[in-house]
């Protein structure tokens, strides 16, 4: 059984992964920014007597990451698996989103994993053994407005993961990228429910797409089971789509040229919604849904 370190384990995919892995017998170090503000994982772990240790770590902080990982290594001798899951969602158009929000999403979603990887890598390299799992997204391969800021951070994570895999394979260290589709998490619900005033039409349309997808929600178990599969398989496969819509979304993007993709995103509402329904069966147009149910 492996010693596993997970970041961002307070809820959503991180908490689901911590529980799935612990129930499978792995020893889990579940880290989060504010353990006292997120008691659910601790409660479940206690009720089920699961091998989960919860501790504070802020992936935005060099000091916090170094102190926590050094402590874990000192107390547990080794970390077999690092799961970089901590992430934040940010959306908005290039013109309208504040610069500090662009920086914040990159700090957590890209530099956070880089910090954690740099902290564990010397240890894994010395042992010539280890697994680094980076939770990216289909948005790490597909960029749609208004998720450009989030996609940029996930594109960057995909790129550094691919490069890292080349560097560490000679040391018997595996790297895996998990690419969830639209999963039923607070983050996805936030995209579905939130629409801010904007001069651009893409924000409202994308919220409606998420809302339609979440009418038949995909559980976080799709991702947590994929993580467990990666750990137990010993497979060197790099990319792992997760969830029933992940591979279809990726193939949808590949089916279009860059120009066709841009033209679809820039199209009028009727054309945009029609293609979503035609290709995915998602009736995301709120006007048509309302008309059909009245």
TrEMBL record:
GO molecular function: oxidoreductase activity
Domain of life: Bacteria
The entry's keywords: Oxidoreductase
Spans traversing the lipid bilayer: none
Pfam families: adh_short
Similarity remark: Belongs to the short-chain dehydrogenases/reductases (SDR) family.
Identification of the protein by name: Short-chain dehydrogenase
Origin species: Flavihumibacter solisilvae
Taxonomic path: Bacteria, Pseudomonadati, Bacteroidota, Chitinophagia, Chitinophagales
């Amino acid at each position: 059984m492996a010693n596993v370190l997970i970041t961002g384990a307070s809820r959503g995919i991180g908490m689901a992964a911590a529980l799935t892995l612990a129930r499978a017998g792995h020893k889990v170090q579940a880290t989060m920014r504010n353990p006292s503000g997120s008691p659910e994982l601790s409660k479940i772990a206690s009720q089920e007597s699961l091998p989960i240790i919860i501790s504070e770590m802020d992936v935005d902080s060099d000091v916090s990451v170094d102190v926590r990982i050094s402590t874990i290594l000192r107390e547990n001798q080794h970390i077999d698996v690092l799961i970089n899951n901590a992430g934040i969602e940010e959306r908005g158009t290039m013109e309208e989103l504040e610069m500090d929000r662009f920086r914040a999403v990159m700090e957590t979603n890209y530099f956070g994993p880089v910090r954690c990887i740099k902290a564990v890598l010397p240890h894994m390299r010395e042992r010539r053994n280890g697994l680094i799992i980076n939770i990216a997204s289909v948005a790490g391969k597909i960029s749609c407005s208004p998720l450009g800021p989030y996609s940029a951070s996930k594109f960057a994570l995909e790129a550094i993961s691919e490069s890292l895999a080349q560097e560490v394979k000679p040391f018997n260290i595996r790297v895996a990228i998990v690419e969830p589709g639209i999963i039923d998490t607070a983050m996805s619900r936030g995209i579905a429910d939130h629409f801010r005033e904007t001069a651009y039409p893409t924000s409202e349309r994308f919220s409606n797409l998420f809302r339609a997808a979440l009418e038949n929600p995909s559980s976080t178990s799709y991702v947590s089971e994929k993580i467990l599969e990666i750990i137990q398989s010993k497979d060197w496969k790099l990319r792992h789509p997760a969830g029933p819509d992940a591979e279809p979304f990726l193939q949808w993007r590949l089916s279009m040229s860059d120009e066709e993709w841009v033209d679809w995103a820039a199209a009028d509402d009727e054309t945009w919604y029609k293609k979503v329904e035609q290709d995915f069966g998602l009736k995301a147009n709120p006007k048509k849904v309302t008309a059909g149910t009245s």
